[in-house]
Design goal:
This protein is of the alpha/beta class. The protein is built from twelve helices and 14 strands. Helix 3 packs parallel to helix 4, helix 4 packs across helix 5 and helix 9 packs across helix 10. It is globular, with a radius of gyration of 21 Å.
Length: 388
């Protein structure tokens, strides 16, 4: 496909920032959750911070074929990676949850796990393994034990040894709740195979296994559920009303049989018809169509973005200006520092302002972007807006 350039005129003007765009980088603040206030049985949920920085798979995904050592510094989706991310002023960590054959929610991104068994490469679906079988892969917790070596297959079919500078064993969702700093929110992506068709019964079984762990171990930790699988997103919303549910979309970068996955407009429709709270979009879809931010905000939905462009500090700060509610990033240290430098912190507030009514009264200022600077920024990043 050819490069799709974005016209400078498509950059939102400074006076087009949505009225509800808020401009402070801050830690998580709690308030009563998505349920109706007054329900004595309702747990406390949380309010989205004014601008969220979310650690992708902890402190960043592993790109084994990358020449950037930061992309293979710490094993992704591991307790070690979660701890590393929590050292910075982030609000959430994002990670992928699947359920094993014996109904244990585990944190692992890929649908298949690969190893090399005396020559041949063995590939097994994660959800076809028991927990004990899965935990035999990679580094082991017990000293002296050696696990099966991990390989990874890229989208184009290449296979790499999964070797990082700081390794860590595979982990379960329960372990994450028990071991990760409690103030760090969890963005739990409900992971399903894009190439499989699931029945409602199958989806419900998986989601109930996840909710069992969440209900037992979450306490008052901030949680967001998200999924590319629209039926899973709708079902988790119906199974509980304590935690917000976001619909994940690449905004049309890839085309699926399920039309609900093929555009931001469809994503808005899914959220409104299913009473979901927000959208997580691939960042390129937002940059190509900045007017969509206003439509999403006018629909009373939150908007978070993901994608490698979010690792450019200028892109993260530009979205902050546009009214996006948060960014999922790999380079946690660099992006949190950049946003802190661009944004003047809100004035101090006392404990009473932990509640939404008070927090909304905080004084904030806009980042230091002019329209000319935004135009130059978009021209700078436009070569990376390639549709695959």
């Amino acid at each position: 496909m050819a490069l799709k350039a974005v016209h400078v005129s498509d950059v939102p003007n400074l006076d087009q920032v949505p009225d509800n765009s808020t401009l402070s980088l801050c830690s998580t603040r709690f308030f009563k959750g998505v349920n109706d206030v007054g329900d004595d049985e309702v747990k406390f949920g949380y309010n989205l911070p004014k601008f969220m920085v979310i650690g992708h798979r902890g402190s960043g995904m592993n790109i084994l074929q990358s020449c950037d050592p930061r992309m293979k510094s710490i094993q992704e989706n591991s307790i070690l990676s979660f701890h590393a991310a929590s050292k910075f002023p982030i609000d959430f960590i994002e990670f992928d949850v699947q359920v094993t054959k014996d109904d244990c929610p585990v944190i692992f991104h890929d649908n298949f796990i690969l190893t090399e068994d005396e020559g041949p490469i063995v590939e097994r679906r994660v959800t076809d393994l028991t927990l004990a079988e899965l935990l035999c892969y990679g580094p082991q917790k017990e000293p002296g034990n050696v696990g099966k070596n991990l390989l990874r297959k890229t989208k184009d079919g290449r296979i790499f040894e999964w070797r990082v500078q700081n390794d860590d064993p595979l982990c379960t969702l329960q372990e994450a709740f028990e071991k990760v700093e409690h103030s760090i929110g969890f963005n739990i992506e409900l992971k399903f195979d894009d190439h499989m068709v699931y029945t409602e019964e199958e989806l419900t079984h998986v989601l109930q296994a996840i909710m069992k762990v969440v209900n037992e171990y979450a306490n008052d930790r901030p949680i967001i559920f998200s999924s590319f699988q629209p039926d899973a997103a709708l079902l988790i919303r119906n199974l509980q009303n304590t935690y917000p549910v976001f619909f994940l979309t690449n905004g049309g970068s890839e085309i699926y049989i399920d039309i609900r996955r093929n555009s931001l407009e469809e994503a808005i429709r899914v959220c409104l018809t299913g009473s979901l709270q927000g959208i997580v979009s691939e960042v390129r879809a937002i940059i190509r169509n900045p007017g969509t931010v206003t439509r999403i905000k006018d629909s009373k939905l939150c908007l978070i973005t993901y994608g490698q462009l979010n690792n450019l500090p200028e892109v993260a700060c530009m979205q902050h200006h546009m009214g996006v509610d948060g960014v999922i990033v790999d380079l946690v240290k660099e992006i949190t520092e950049a946003i802190s430098n661009y944004i003047k912190p809100a004035k101090d507030y006392d404990e009473d302002s932990l509640f939404v009514e008070e927090a909304e009264k905080q004084v904030t200022t806009k980042p230091r972007f002019t329209q000319h600077e935004l135009s130059l920024l978009l021209l700078k990043i436009s070569p990376e807006l390639i549709q695959s």
